[in-house]
């Protein structure tokens, strides 16, 4: 296999490489690759793949906006918090598991559905 050197870092790489495996230098266009995901296009050229902007994974990443949305959800569903409290009094030995399920349900339901309340339509 023929080898060549990367013009940026000087490491030896296969001659048919499009990117340096050490530094990521784009050998075809002589520019460093972008941070986005790259896919093969027409066998030689590389193009950026479009990232989904609203995937369910992105909706679950914690940030200040999400925490405000979850907080508003808990405030709007005060009856749910009261019901969880009563259930935790009855099943005292399971109180931390019940509390954990409450936190998980409040976080996931509000972010995945976009609702502000259990019985409200999506805004």
Automatic annotation (TrEMBL):
Instruction: Indicate the transmembrane segments per the record.
Output: 73-92, 98-114
Which parts of the sequence belong to the Putative zinc-ribbon domain? 2-24
- One family from Pfam that matches here is Zn_ribbon_3
Domain of life, per UniProt, equals Bacteria
Provide this UniProt record's keywords sorted from A to Z. Membrane, Transmembrane, Transmembrane helix
Q: What is this protein called?
A: Zinc-ribbon domain-containing protein
Protein source organism:
Secundilactobacillus hailunensis
